[in-house]
Amino acid sequence: MPLLGLLPWRAWAALLSQLLRPPCASCTGAVRCQSQVAEAVLTSQLKAHQEKPNFIIKIPKGTRDLSPQHMVVREKILDLVISCFKRHGAKGMDTPAFELKEILTEKYGEDSGLMYDLKDQGGELLSLRYDLTVPFARYLAMNKVKKMKRYHVGKVWRRESPTIVQGRYREFCQCDFDIAGQFDPMIPDAECLKIMCEILSGLQLGDFLIKVNDRRIVDGMFAACGVPESKFRAICSSIDKLDKMAWKDVRHEMVAKKGLAPEVADRIGDYVQCHGGVSLVEQMFQDPRLSQNKQALEGLGDLKLLFEYLTLFGIAEKISFDLSLARGLDYYTGVIYEAVLLQTPTQAGEEPLNVGSVAAGGRYDGLVGMFDPKGHKVPCVGLSIGVERIFYIVDGFLMILFVLIFGTTKGEKVRTTETQVFVATPQKNFLQERLKLITELWDAGIKAEMLYKNNPKLLTQLHYCESTGIPLVVIIGEQELKEGVIKIRSVASREEVAIKRENLVAEIQNRLSES
Amino acid sequence: MPLLGLLPWRAWAALLSQLLRPPCASCTGAVRCQSQVAEAVLTSQLKAHQEKPNFIIKIPKGTRDLSPQHMVVREKILDLVISCFKRHGAKGMDTPAFELKEILTEKYGEDSGLMYDLKDQGGELLSLRYDLTVPFARYLAMNKVKKMKRYHVGKVWRRESPTIVQGRYREFCQCDFDIAGQFDPMIPDAECLKIMCEILSGLQLGDFLIKVNDRRIVDGMFAACGVPESKFRAICSSIDKLDKMAWKDVRHEMVAKKGLAPEVADRIGDYVQCHGGVSLVEQMFQDPRLSQNKQALEGLGDLKLLFEYLTLFGIAEKISFDLSLARGLDYYTGVIYEAVLLQTPTQAGEEPLNVGSVAAGGRYDGLVGMFDPKGHKVPCVGLSIGVERIFYIVDGFLMILFVLIFGTTKGEKVRTTETQVFVATPQKNFLQERLKLITELWDAGIKAEMLYKNNPKLLTQLHYCESTGIPLVVIIGEQELKEGVIKIRSVASREEVAIKRENLVAEIQNRLSES
To answer: Name one GO biological process term (chains A, B) (predicted).
Structure first.
């Protein structure tokens, strides 16, 4: 499934996905509902609408519908992601869309204000889940599970300022894989990175890089630079913005808004420019400031071991130790990572397609213990695939592909149904025969359609097959009925053959298995 | 996939699914969080917890987690349902979990109060979707789609008093299939009933019946009995409760709470006892009161045509014209239907397992027009499969099956992973070799696991395979490494053979394709 190939398609994608998006009134703004329908059965509801002449038909800010075309692309991406998770031995799981608000509080640092709360309608105070990690930790603690490798695909909700053009929504789908349990160091962590590589390679999104760091190195760096411990998480949140903001703006935030001394900020500035392979790990072991910090040394030791395993997995060249990586969420305690797609140099005037990180994760050894009455810990490490952003990229690309390869030539489209056979008739008053015939096909497990008309024209029926990509037509008319035969027509070649009625299902199954 | 067989398993199911449910602390009530963990990195969060000594770890009322065992069953059910929808030519679609509150208001009759509203955090007023039908109608109107056959699988939320023991939750999954568009009468309606039959037969839930009526017959019956038009929908809601309440209680509600004259209620009482096949349709054409009502006659005419098509589809004997069927939702305008599992006579002292309707739907020709600025209508008919209730039944049954067939004999369990190969070693210091080996397998698309330990014992590794059902083990040790071979072991037969290292992937693929 080569979903994406070589470049300069990114700028194209941005443009074309705008041009080609399915018709959507939500973009065009207000639509007034004047309710001209007036049936007795609907009276009461209609009255309500007539009383609201400014009633606007739209979807909530930052959300979107997935059209059948979108769904085809999404299904392909999810299939690839889930089959990778299963290849690594993960079990499936699901949790409710909302949790008690208390469960989610104080887990997300500065972003906690972006949670969607439910209205107090009497009863518990609830919030929509903000990620799949905290519900997983709650599940482990609640059920006293000490060891588990699971995946979870589901929607999460965040009240972010939506910048929809770059694939960020307020409702989006995450695909998470996590390993919970006490194991020898860095083996599960390395597997998480291997999984990220397999998925990003599999989706053929072009070249990518996974930035790696460790929360203990981040904190050690802060301590070594003179950041007061009480400001660790706040400064961490600022550093996390380095992929979207320039250093000078991040520095300004740390100094002016968060009260960091300018010389401390500048020391941090020296470190966050560093990135490299395992040699940078060795170099940091010798760093005069970091080498004095016990936490940082632990982190560096683990990263060294991690790189050893990554080499055995054959993915070391995809990984970059990057001291600017901090990750915003509060719960990380060890190794952290984030995958980015590598931009190609765009031509003059082309807007680079910036989708930010497409996958991320890390180790969170303290989260489960926060939910356990006795504080018993279950160490965890995991990753999250940002399907929405990948979807945005792949979707943009697929649309170009259809235009370039099919659209401009034969009018062929992406199929949104899987129908194999169409039941047609050239005659009037053949509805009964069509219904009997299609029942036979359905009952044999064959995907079949017909038009919901008593007397459709043959041409209309054949056009339907061509426009929806149905490969086979079975035709029944007076003559066929008399002779006990059915005509099978190939839509592509327009060839027709008559076969015995009783052989119909077998013959179709035969043809479908050949194609 | 014979998920369910013959009976008296229902009473068993209720009992056993209680006994066998995975450990779940939510049932045991309050758990105090005393937070004995105290790491620097977690200080801020922990403080928050220490300040809440009564913090309770549980999930929201009326919701549940799906464990890996549950997910295996759910996936089987959804696969069967979705493949049926695709067999009938439906496209996939998705909409956001919440809609503007105004979109959902006035669509659900008396049940509208059960909607989950989101808190007003500035911006739009939102509610969680209550079904998948209203979002579908909103989608059609917003995108000016006049014709579409789509399916939609997704969660919906209703603040009902949860009676979890009968498979009713506040968060549950629906599988909807709908046909939108102007077609010749009753052909799409008949297909919806055919789909319900295919799914319920496919799931092998035991014998079932689909009750059918028409909103125009219901309204005609009300008019003929002397119900004032303003009370139609309210009385409809009362009638809808007949599957859960006795007639005398429903009558009391209509008379005492809704102000219906007792003699009118009694006239309705005579009708709602009637159910039967197409002969009852003929009989009602002759009914002195109904035959005077234009609406009722239209409904009866359509039902007659419907039965003709159902006979051609070979499912007429599964369908019962039932005058007690009303359906609570406001938006239905034509034929309505509801599938129920037929109870077997339970033995004395056994509680019958009442799961209510497992699938339902009907025609709603006015809903899309309510969202269209000019009131343009798009006639629709559809159905919804209540996966949660089916899940409850199948789940209960599967658990019995495992106990009876596997549990008591060989300790075999339902597999929650799909891992095909386990990478093991009998020697110390073989982590590197195991990592290289498993990389080869993963990169060849083989589902593989190993233990995350530097020096695991061979017995521990083999036990892991037996307890998780992994069929093959590949073993590498010093001797194998020296000779350039790998041992392959079948977990079931315990047979081992040595093969050349370079043939490993091919040999495993060969074995997996045979099994």
So the answer is: histidyl-tRNA aminoacylation
Structure-block tokens of residue A215 = 């929360």
CATH architecture, domain defined by A421-514:
3-Layer(aba) Sandwich (3.40)
Q: What is the pTM of this model?
A: 0.86
Domain boundaries, chain B: 68-406, 421-514
Q: In this predicted structure, what is the pLDDT of residue B390?
A: 83
Query: Is B68-406 in CATH node 3.40.109.10?
Result: no
Cis peptide before A8 (omega within 30 of 0): yes
| Strands of B148-157's sheet in order across | B91-92, B148-157, B171-180, B380-386, B357-363, B335-341, B208-214, B319-322, B275-276
Pick the most confident of A62-76, A478-492, B322-336: A478-492
| pLDDT (0 to 100) of residue A398 | 56
Residue B354 pLDDT: 56
* Ranges under pLDDT 70 in chain B: 1-55, 162-167, 343-355, 395-413
How many C-alpha atoms does B191 have within 13 Å on its Cβ side?
A: 29
Of A183, A181, A131, A126, give the one whose Cα is nearest residue A152: A131
Strands (DSSP E) along A91-187, which ranges? Answer: 91-92, 98-100, 126-128, 148-157, 171-180
DSSP 8-state symbol, A245: S
Give the closest residue to A377 by CA, choosing from A367, A387, A363.
A367
Joined together, the tokens standing for residue A210 give: 């996974």
Residues forming beta bridges with residue A224, ordered by sequence position? none
Contacts of B356 (CB under 8 A, 6+ apart): B166, B168, B243, B244, B340, B389
Angstrom distance (rounded) from CA A436 to CA B310? 10
pLDDT digits (tens, 9 = 90+) for A287-343: 999 999 999 999 999 999 999 999 999 999 999 999 999 987 889 999 999 999 886
Half-sphere exposure at residue B218, Cβ-oriented, CA atoms within 13 angstroms: 29
Residue B309 marked as a ligand binder: no
Instruction: Confirm or reject contact between B160 and chain A (CB < 8 A).
Output: no
* Summary mean pLDDT of chain A: 85
| The pLDDT of residue A17 | 41
How near does any CA of chain A get to the CA of B230, in Å?
Answer: 9
Across A31-60, average pLDDT: 48
CB-based contacts of A217, cutoff 8 Å, min separation 6 = A284, A290, A295, A296, A299, A300, A303, A323
CA angle B209, B92, B310 (to 5 degrees): 30
| Cα–Cα distances in angstroms (integers) from residue A482 to residues A7, A430, A479, A501, in the given order | 59, 13, 5, 11
Residue B383: phi and psi, rounded to 5, are -145, 160
Interface of B with A in 246-285 (CB under 8 A): none
Chain A partners of B436 at a C-beta cutoff of 8 Å?
312
For residue B418, give the 3-state DSSP assignment. coil
Q: How far is B345 from chain A (nearest CA, A)?
A: 31
More confident residue, A495 or A2: A495
Both structure tokens of A231: 């400001």
CB contacts under 8 A, B 335-364 vs A, are: none
Among the listed residues B333, B317, B336, B334, the one whose alpha carbon sits nearest the alpha carbon of residue B325: B336
Question: Residue B112 in contact with residue B129, Cβ under 8 Å?
Answer: no
Query: Annotated binding site: which residue ranges of A?
Result: 131-133, 158, 174, 178, 327, 331-332
Q: From residue B463, give the alpha-carbon distance in Å to each of A64, B424, B468.
A: 48, 11, 9
pLDDT for B355? 59
The residue assigned the tokens 């319900």 is B196
Q: Which residues pair with A213 in a beta bridge?
A: A336
DSSP for A291-329, please give it: GG-HHHHHHHHHHHHHHHHHHHTT-GGGEEEETT---S-
Q: Is B147 on the interface with A (CB under 8 A)?
A: no
